[in-house]
């Protein structure tokens, strides 16, 4: 029987993905961007984000020179925003410490913000044909099933076994093709559910397949009921604008623009303390649930109309009165975007209703 890598490469030559937008050359910059975007995110979701990102930031220096708000805006909706902040930070490091050239040494790459061993290995394999094993989520699944490695890959002992297998199977030649091949195998055939074992090039000696236990590998993370948190977000509106705040760099939605959270204050006190204004009307909306990896968040939106909002708060780096029809000031958290879109839809419906009544009046005798 030919080796694991030989069979995988033969399969890749015929069935592998070779026309993805980041596969059109060996420039490490777009490969790096794609690898970061592909963390926790599927290829089809990434493609349009990648294309817009590269169009706006075509080089490392363009990314380093960009405002973080602009980078986060391009990332809005993709989630895991620390990835975008780390990309921006790493671009600055590359400019200041590597002369604007993406480093080609594994230690230098792993030293960059947001890049671990597997991502660094993938970047250097795909861009420089360097031999480095990788171990992303797809590869973990392939290797755990093929060798029937039990247990959750998050455990140190399991991870050590998987890294040893990744090292053993990575060939000395055609490293970039193999790297893409094993990622493709996990993404297209050796999927989490309903894997296509009948078409897998390494099924003949896959231990999980032989024991009809594919679904048992890799081991699941021990289940832990996600806690439910709650917050109240104010949609403070005045003169066609909505008040937004930039969130702190640390914590959820770090650096993104968001609706303010009420906390323990009453609406009246919040409007007085933050806006030096009074609330003339309020309207609770249907709650919105947003799920994170570690907890669920129930958001209670309340639309508040305020008077004289600009007497205390003006546009700054951390606050803004946002006109809905304008371009966002930067990245906006996904649930906040949903609420702003909901407000825009309501305003559009109201405008359409007024227009219809005006037409009716015009046709009356």
Biggest sheet, open or closed, and with what strands and sense? 7 strands, mixed
Which topology of the largest domain does CATH recognise?
Endonuclease III, domain 1
CA radius of gyration is 25 Å
CATH architecture of the largest domain, please? Answer: Orthogonal Bundle
Shape: elongated
Under CATH, the homologous superfamily of the largest domain reads Hypothetical protein, domain 2
Distance between the termini: 90 Å
Number of helices: 14
CATH class of the largest domain: Mainly Alpha
**What structural category do the secondary elements indicate?**
alpha+beta
**Helix residue percentage:** 40-55%
N-to-C order of helices and strands: HHHHHHHHHHHHEEEHEEEEH
Q: How many individual β-strands? A: 7
Low-pLDDT residue intervals, each spanning 5 or more residues = 359-365
Written overview of the protein:
This protein has 365 residues and is an alpha+beta fold. The chain has two domains: 4-216, Orthogonal Bundle (Endonuclease III, domain 1); 228-361, Alpha-Beta Complex (Nucleoside Triphosphate Pyrophosphohydrolase), CATH 3.90.79. The chain is built from 14 helices and seven strands. It has helices at 4-15, 28-37, 43-56, 60-65, 68-75, 82-97, 106-110, 117-128, 137-146, 156-169, 175-188, 207-210, 267-275, 334-363; strands at residues 228-238, 241-246, 257-258, 278-284, 288-291, 296-307, 319-323. Strands 1, 2, 3, 4, 5, 6 and 7 form a seven-stranded mixed β-sheet that branches. Helix 2 (28-37) packs across helix 3 and helix 2 runs antiparallel to helix 8 (117-128). The radius of gyration is 25 Å and the shape is elongated.
